C-alpha cells in the first residue's frame, strides 16, 4: 500500500500517479479534512499530469497569502488562474 493508514485502490492509484503525496510519516489520513492549499496542490498536479499549463500569477494576492505554504502557494494561484479556485 502507498500509505500505512489507507489501502483504498483509488488513493493508491492517485499516489502512484503523483497526484497525492500524503504526509512525511507515511500516512494519508483519509478521515482528516484537507485544506484549500492541499486541495490546490492535488488539483495542480492532476491538471499538470493531464498536460495542462497554468501560470501562478498572484497579482491579486489572497488575504491569507502569508499563511500559504511555500510549496502550495503556486498551486493555489495556478488553480485560480484557470478558474478552479
UniProtKB/TrEMBL annotation:
Top-level division of the source organism's lineage: Bacteria
SLH domain mapped to chain residues: 1-57
Pfam families on file: SLH
InterPro entries hit by this protein: SLH_dom
PROSITE patterns assigned: SLH (PS51272)
Coiled-coil stretches: none
Stated name of the protein: S-layer homology domain-containing protein
Amino acid at each position: 500500500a502507498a500509505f500505512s493508514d489507507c489501502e483504498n485502490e483509488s488513493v493508491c492509484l492517485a499516489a502512484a500517479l503523483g497526484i497525492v503525496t500524503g504526509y512525511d510519516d507515511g500516512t494519508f489520513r483519509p478521515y482528516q479534512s484537507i485544506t484549500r492549499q492541499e486541495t490546490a496542490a492535488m488539483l495542480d498536479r492532476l491538471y499538470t499530469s493531464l498536460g495542462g499549463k497554468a501560470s501562478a500569477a498572484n497579482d491579486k494576492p489572497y488575504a491569507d497569502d502569508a499563511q500559504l505554504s511555500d510549496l502550495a502557494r503556486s498551486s493555489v494561484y495556478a488553480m485560480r488562474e484557470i478558474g478552479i479556485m
